[in-house]
Amino acid sequence: MSSLYETQTAFLDYLMNQSPQFEQYVVGTKRFNKETRLGIYGDAYASRLIEALQDNYPATSTLIGDCKFIKMGQHYLEKYPSKHFSVRYFGHQLSPYLQKYYSEIPVLAEMAEFEWALRAAFDAKDQTPSTLADLQAIPIERWGEIRFTLHDSVHRLDLSWNVAKLWQAIESEEAAIPAEKAEYPIAWRIWRETELKIFYKSLAVDEAWALDAMRDQLCFADICAGLCEWVDEIHAAQRAVTLIQTWIADGLIVDVSID
Amino acid sequence: MHNKLPYLGFGLGLRKEHYTDILETQPAVDWFEVLSENYLVPGGKPLYYLDKIHAHYPMVMHGVSLSIGSSDPLNMGYLKQLKALSKRIDAHWISDHLCWTGLNGINAHDLLPLPYTEEAINHVAERIQQVQDFLGRQILMENVSSYITYAQSGDMTEWEFFTEVCERADCLMLLDINNIYVSAVNHEFKPEDYLNSVPIERVQQYHLAGHSDYQNYVIDTHDHPIVPAVWQLYEKAVARFGEVSTMIERDDNIPPLEEVMQELDQVRALANKIQTQQDEKVVKS
């Protein structure tokens, strides 16, 4: 008599690797033989997870082609079987996977990175955005010490391909547009306003740097100093304030504080 | 843990396709069953709609990730999140499936059947007790559809296994009437034998759904309207178990809310008719 653990090991091995050992654990009938019975579970394992992957990556699937996506999904499943209780997180390694195994089509990994960031923004933690009044409540002489906390939904990406345009065309079911590589990577931010609306926007180089600096917990004075790479020293503080006002208006900042 | 859980009436599975219609039309649904994992997320749209709808309707939670029969340790992180969600929506009860879903840290995301053995009964009953202790409440276990028969199950039937687990763990039962029918076809038993064997006092909820028929076997797809054979079985369940909270569980191919509401009205009418007939029998006798 096999133990429960041995039985389950054999069953999972059948699902993941089609190992025939599990057949000995099962009895069939003439009408419904054991190969067909086992096949129902075997087919369901891959198809359910690939369907979940496709739900999270609809544009990546369209780009590669739905049939090829299924083939790719089977290989991805072999490399990265689900280890989370929720199937929602099954695709968390898709972008690095595509970078490694589909390097000849580099737009795929970038599209997957973009879609995963949209997915993460979708159900990121709800947080109350800071207001200009929060900023103004801090005495001006101490502004140099201010550190900021970004909303959990804020994601920064650097994309070499026209991924956002491709995604928009696929999402809107517009005519297909060609994948095009930019001369240099473009910075993007993805974020969610209130509980429901997700946005993405391309960024100027200095805005991208400042946003990254804010995420890295640099204080206002250091952000101003860093911006001097793009603007005159006398305009750096004004540029920083303008950026922060924009980010506050977009709901990107959830805490403004001094030590 | 013997507080009687309430009778909630006739409910639906909460599906994202119906969020806005529910809020705009406030349909006459007595309660909603929510898929726990859909709301075990940090925030955003799922929890936004959950809170809005919860303001108008009682809710219960139904999970797919407890993996109560697995040989892996219980996932305490999952249980903590489950408990927090139950508080957020004042869940009347929490249910999951009598199955296992993964092993060695790998999740198959399928409701895999258990062998009907003494070892499995002990294992599952003990774990249900641990879960109930942690959650501080009785949970409901649901019968799954199955397609394989384990050689080691011997002569033990599914309903004997299910009953023994629930008795030893002192948990409640969620009877999926469709799943009973699916397993009855696939394993060639009489579904009435199943219904007539489970203890009346443990049955807290029903699921009703449709399935896909492949002639020699049927697959529990939960993507069709309730079929005649399941309606008939439901009638028999109502006659035997009396007033039990009932809901339609549609997991795929989700129709418009209005269509599911019409089906729910049929469920309600049938249950009331059978219940009235039963009451009349009691009066006559």
CATH architecture of chain B: Alpha-Beta Barrel
Number of helices of chain A: 11
Beta-strand content estimate of chain A: 5-15%
CATH third-tier fold name of the largest domain in chain A: Outer Surface Protein A, domain 3
Helix-and-strand structural type of chain A: alpha+beta
Tell me, rounded to a whole number, the average pLDDT of chain A.
95
CATH topology of chain B: TIM Barrel
- From the N-terminal CA to the C-terminal CA of chain A, the straight-line distance is 65 Å
**Do you know the CATH architecture of the largest domain in chain A?**
Alpha-Beta Complex
Count of DSSP E strands of chain B?
13
Q: What are the secondary-structure elements of chain B, in order, as H or E? A: EHEHEHEEEHEEHEHHEEEHEH
Secondary structure topology:
The complex is a heterodimer of chains A (259) and B (285).
Chain A: H1 4-17, E1 26-27, H2 34-56, H3 58-64, H4 66-79, H5 94-101, H6 106-122, H7 132-136, E2 147-150, E3 155-161, H8 163-171, E4 181-193, E5 197-203, H9 205-215, H10 220-227, H11 233-249, E6 253-257
Helix pairs in contact in A: 2-4, 3-4, 3-6, 5-6, 9-10, 10-11
Chain B: E1 10-13, H1 19-25, E2 31-35, H2 45-54, E3 59-62, H3 76-88, E4 94-97, E5 100-103, E6 106-112, H4 118-135, E7 140-142, E8 149-150, H5 158-169, E9 172-176, H6 177-187, H7 191-197, E10 203-208, E11 212-213, E12 218-219, H8 228-241, E13 245-248, H9 257-284
Parallel strand pairs in B: 1-2, 1-13, 2-3, 3-4, 4-7, 7-9, 9-10, 10-13
Antiparallel strand pairs in B: 5-6, 11-12
